Prior knowledge:
With 108 residues, the protein is α+β, with helices and mostly antiparallel strands. The chain has one domain (20-97). Helices cover 65% and strands 12% of the residues. Strands 1-2 form a two-stranded antiparallel ribbon. Helix 1 (19-45) packs antiparallel against helix 2. The model has no long low-confidence stretch (mean pLDDT 89).
Amino acid sequence: MNEVxxxxxxxxxxxxxxxxxxxxxxxxxxxxxxxxxxxxxxxxAGRPVIPRAFWIMSVVGSLMLLSYFIAGKNDSVGVLSNLxxxxxxxxxxxxxxxxxxxxxxxxx
Length: 108
């Protein structure tokens, strides 16, 4: 997966794209793009909200970045910087998806 699949020049830089880099680029795009989703949802609601898509994008983006930093790059700083957000996003998604208990009030 470290085989170069795309090679091009960007100004004076040579860019080599591998499968792992595509996974990393996609993870970064998802992780950063979640804020656009949150902005659109908050604008529509007229107040700050965090939609479920935010947490899904957080989990998927973090896991993709973790896989890139563990297997593709072998970078402990990248692993540590994405481990906690992956856990936190996963926990918040679990809270959002779990069945909610509805309080029943006595009606007399």
